[in-house]
Amino acid sequence: MENSNEEAFNEEVYRYYEENKPDLSKVVTIAFIGKVSSGKSSLINAFFERGRDDAIAKVGATSGVTTEVKFFKLNENVYIVDSPGLDDIKKENSEATERFLESIDIAIFVVSGSADKTQKVNFSGVKYKIPDTLFVLNKKDDFDDLDESGVDDVVTQWKTSVGVDQVFQTCAKGYDPKSRKDIPLRIEGVDALKAHVYKILSEKKKDILLKKSMKDKRSAAISIAVTATLSAAGSSFIPASTVYITGIQMTALSSLVYLYTGEVLDKKSIVTIMFSMLGQNVGKSIFIFFASMFPGVDAVGAVVAATVTAAMLAAAISFLESGKSLNDAAGFNDMYKKTYSTVKSMLNVKDMTSEGFIERLFNKLV
């Protein structure tokens, strides 16, 4: 495709966007499975960024609840299942339960304490029904008296007894609504667990739905921006890179707007925002949209792609964080220009390939 052919370019970009944009009509269902003693309630509240005073249980359960299994509707797109085991969910034997079971995207299998071989059957059963099942060793604080090697031994024992390769270690002390008010909140390992959940959901184009449910929009926004920036840089090495880079930017911008406002923008609205944002900087960003002078197959192209994308998304996050609308063309353009200058002075080939640099960059920018 020739970049000078604007019509063909637009068609290719729109096609990429339609194929890769998140489906906001979908539903995310996450099941937390484990014994009552495993600390599921605390972990659920910590995972969804709820404190003792606004625990998930207060959101409201759907029909079909028993003392064993709880179904929660967090919002129109996110559902939570809290159950001792998969068999307990099946015992509900209701139409609503069947829908929940069929729609479970991810199971988080929660245990605590020393390794228990009897959990292998339970875990295997869940893993068989729900392939995307994560194993979590909760109440990490129970091992505070052990040295690092002692904790490693406990984790190894769980891996061996249950037959898992990865164990997420978490602590959510004080997040249970029944906890004493004077107990300080302690959270560890939950962000790593959440990041893996986002990764799984992103493959289903559902991660934005869960991120929208979180109170901390900034962290979710940065994760969207980091992924898009790295993807844009990587796309600069392939033919017709400007199509992919522009499509990546459009997808990220629409996700950020939805994250903060719940508004679903059509592709033309997104393009309008992008062009108004560029303003006098169209020449600076011509690599992204139309220029053929950049081959898009070397490190220079990757840095330019990353710089423009990072500046665009950092400016958008800053604007949305402050409650402003991206339709404020003049203000957004001014924010972009300032951010672009900052990013350009900070980003180079060496730093861009350094692990974690892009995330640190966004944390400084927004």
TrEMBL record:
The keyword Transmembrane is assigned to this record: yes
Q: Name one Pfam family in it.
A: MMR_HSR1
Q: Tell me which positions the record assigns to the signal sequence.
A: none
Source domain of life:
Bacteria
Q: Which UniProt keywords apply?
A: Membrane, Transmembrane, Transmembrane helix
Q: Name one GO molecular function term.
A: GTP binding
Q: Which residues cross the membrane?
A: 220-238, 244-261, 273-294, 300-320
Using the record's annotation, list all stretches that form the G domain.
29-139
The answer, when asked if Membrane is one of the entry's keywords, is yes
Q: What is the protein name given in its UniProt record? A: GTP-binding protein HSR1-related protein
Source species: Acidithiobacillus ferrivorans SS3
